[in-house]
Write a structure and sequence with these properties.
4 helices; 3 domains; 23 strands; alpha/beta; 8-stranded parallel sheet; Alkaline Protease, subunit P, domain 1; Immunoglobulin-like; 4-stranded antiparallel sheet
Length: 339
């Protein structure tokens, strides 16, 4: 009896079967390499028609033209034209001529020894290398499923230890990267592993990867720490006097203006009073008083100019004139009106 409980439909399907059992092979040359295999399902033209090596396989499923199962593989599935599976308990979705041994592989698969990954996406997906496009990713974050909660401390110190880089991936057929790809931006896994190891994982190939969503809590706590420092500085400055008293005294000692003697003096027709205002000010004027202290004339003035006094507006006699800046008397001098 060359086979038991097999279903074979198609020209030259299962053409080399010897003692296999419980297999289903449908399509031209489907399962044509099956000899001592069991529990397999090959559907499609040339599905399961070749092995990489030779040996017994079991409980594998391939759907698609030229789908391939490697030697001594158990419990795996390959779906898509020319898709190849090369490790136990693996699902390959897509098409290509390479193999995979991740649990689920999508795209052109690659052979890797000692796989531990759950999902691998190789080649263009949407666009770019190793790309994944989606409208959202949600992580289990309900407080009811968490324990041993500890708030992150020293976040700013950790952030200051990390560095952001721009870079290009090296050409690596093993990893599916290409040196002709787009310029990237990110962190170095080794640096992150040293200071904040959460989200850093070593893959089956020995290379490290980073799940960047783990950085969100770190950045959040860092912002809060920074804001706390800013608030402390605001409080400190709010409690400080606006002006240092010593500086205020020094400021008061500095001249705010200069008043010159009028020329000519004495005069009968007109005389000119020159002056300067040396600081920023809001209001300045020159006032003229008689010897009895009565205000006889006053005139608003601006910095670095001269004021001309009309002698006909004053009776003959001696007068005092004063430069006043923002209510402060700068200097006082005397003038004489002669007739």
């Amino acid at each position: 009896d060359w086979a038991n409980e097999n279903v074979v439909i198609g020209y030259n399907a299962a053409s080399q079967i010897i003692s296999s059992s419980a297999n289903t092979m449908i399509g031209y040359l489907a399962g044509s390499m099956v000899q001592q295999d069991y529990g397999n399902t090959f559907i499609g033209s040339s599905a399961g028609s070749s092995y990489i090596g030779s040996g017994s396989d079991g409980y594998n499923t391939t759907l698609g033209v030229n789908t391939v199962v490697d030697n001594f593989i158990i419990g795996s599935t390959a779906i898509g034209q020319s898709s190849r599976v090369c490790d136990n308990n693996t699902i390959v979705l897509g098409s290509g001529t390479n193999g995979a041994n991740e649990v689920v592989v999508m795209g052109n698969c690659k052979a890797v020894n000692g796989a531990i990954g759950d999902l691998e996406i190789v080649g263009p997906s949407g666009s770019g290398t190793n790309g994944l496009w989606a409208d959202g990713v949600w992580y289990g974050s309900d407080v009811r499923i968490k324990k041993d909660l500890e708030q992150i401390e020293g976040a700013l110190k950790i952030i200051n230890k990390l560095n952001g880089y721009t870079y290009f991936y090296k050409d690596s057929s093993e990893l599916g990267f290409s040196k002709t790809g787009e310029k990237q931006a990110g962190l170095l896994a080794q640096e992150l592993l040293e200071y904040f190891p959460y989200g850093v994982k070593k893959g089956a190939t020995g290379y490290f990867g980073v799940d960047y969503h783990h950085l969100i809590p770190l950045l959040l706590e860092g912002i809060k720490e920074q804001q706390s420092q800013i608030d402390d500085l605001k409080k400190m400055f709010a409690n400080q006097p606006i002006v240092n008293p010593e500086l205020e005294d020094l400021k008061n000692q500095l001249p705010i203006g200069k008043l010159n003697q009028n020329n000519p003096n004495p005069f009968s027709e007109n005389t000119e009073i020159k002056f300067e205002i040396l600081t920023n000010y809001k209001f300045a004027e020159i006032r003229i008083y008689d010897l009895g202290g009565n205000l006889r004339l006053n005139s608003n003035v601006t910095e670095q100019q001269a004021l001309v006094i009309d002698g006909h507006k004053l009776d003959p006699g001696i007068y005092a004139y004063t430069l006043i800046v923002d209510g402060v008397s700068v200097d006082t001098k005397t003038l004489v009106v002669a007739k």
